[in-house]
């Protein structure tokens, strides 16, 4: 009962985070386990009121030819925690995170994402991958063989800290 009241007071008066008050950018580099490609994304509340991110983001990765098909999982993996989502209150000027992880393609890579659309319960925000970025393998690439283990992306829920998204 006390925990439920604490969650209610944390969320009181806050609406779902909605564009254009939320921006997305590259988060810090994450040192990966073998054959892993991890991408941390930072979501910043640019509004003047606290807002809530809850659950898992909807994710669309695209290139010049359109959406790229990936299998998306929310079960965690070697890098991503399998923790269940909890509402995250994001105060003005503060941030939250989402982390994506995939294996390297065993065979050939086919298409590299140039944009990412990240959906929240109140809309979606877009992010364009820089043409030159540190650790370019963080850009998700599809595998030529759809059955390749690198065709699956593990996605964390919205979390208040980068550490909360990771195993370990």
In short:
The protein has 168 residues and is mostly beta strands.
Walkthrough of the structure:
With 168 residues, the chain is mainly beta. It has one domain. It is built from two helices and 14 strands, in the order αββββββββββββββα. The strands form four sheets. Strands 2-3-9-14-7 form a five-stranded mixed beta sheet, with no helix packed on it. The two termini are 30 Å apart.
Fold blueprint:
Layout: H1 2-11, E1 15-16, E2 22-26, E3 36-45, E4 51-53, E5 58-63, E6 66-67, E7 71-73, E8 88-90, E9 95-103, E10 109-112, E11 115-120, E12 123-128, E13 141-143, E14 152-155, H2 162-165
Parallel strand pairs: 1-4, 7-14
Antiparallel strand pairs: 2-3, 3-9, 4-8, 5-6, 5-11, 9-14, 10-13, 11-12
The total tally of domains equals 1
- Spatial order of strands in the largest sheet: 2-3-9-14-7
Total of DSSP H or I helical runs spanning 4+ residues:
2
Helical fraction equals under 10%
Molecular shape: globular
Low-pLDDT residue spans: 2-8
Query: Ends: how far apart?
Result: 30 Å
Average of pLDDT: 90
